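re: that chain from earlier
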Amino acid sequence: MRDAALVLADGSVFEGELIGADPIGGVAGGEVVFNTTLSGYQEVITDPSYAGQIITFTYPHIGNYGVNATDYESARPFCRGVIVREMARRDSNQRSEGPLDGLLRQFGISGIAGIDTRRLTRLIRDTGAMPGAFGPVATGEAALRAAAAAEKGTDGVDLVAEVTTTAPYTVAATGAGARRIVAFDFGIKTTILRHLSGIGTVQVVPASTSAAAVLALNPEGVFLSNGPGDPAMVGYAVDTIRELVGQVPVFGICLGHQLLSRALGGETYKLPFGHHGGNHPVRHEATGHVEITSQNHNFCVSPASLEGKVEVTHINLNDLTNEGMRVLGAPAFSVQYHPEAGPGPHDSRYLFDMFGELMGDARVSNQVRF
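^ sequence. v structure.
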């Protein structure tokens, strides 16, 4: 390992050691966020929703159970880097097929270890997510500071274009369901496709696919996936979704939730440091039940901007932000969190069953217990 430094846009400096691949040009830059999950680091790192960001893990020991071919959420990581307190010196688990450091090197992802992640997390919590850059000490603090200052972050950038598939592909049905689903890939995760394939055959299409092209596939339902960045920069998808609502049942999660909201004329805004973790409490308004959810997003929907158009179905109990809605007068609903994820509990997987029920008969949209 080599001595390294992390510099944030506010001038804060953290010392550590390089892990993973060597940064291209001696610098790895991006928007620094923190994730509070205790496990699942491979799924987090390979989640396309982290495009443009450097992930800080708040859990102090990362890499202790290694990585394997099963737990990838995409073909490769799209994050800009990782920050950890301590990288495990050896991986120890019956499912391990290699060390986390090997995965980072394989895909050219740089990391920095030995950082005081507690101090860094408190700083981000108090001041908000901010651009940063890290690299070997030899790069020089001045160069890292300049790189951090030049970093754009995730505001005003179309990151979906960086992660979406370039060509359509089909995922065969794996369960008894025989529905035809079209899934927009805004940064879709493997586990989502696994759940959707339990309902029926999934035709995955690029983010820029038109409404006419989707309807030509004669889908029984349309899924709007998760993805990275600012929903205001994905206007082409918003226009398409606007044409689809009311034509076919729609289910969206995460970025898909935000894009559906904007298609209805709603507004989105950026949270100070976002929701990134596996233990966010969300109240299901219809039942009063509290779900422990997995989340990964920086932007949020303003429910006031959708008054009279949607019914809010889920609320985040940490900050009372919008976590779910159903569209009034159309078979469409969405949630801000990740119902496919299993950070321990599987509290939210019923949402896939609801999507299947909605496709069974679009007319039941007002009877389904949202």
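The two ends are 51 Å apart (CA to CA).
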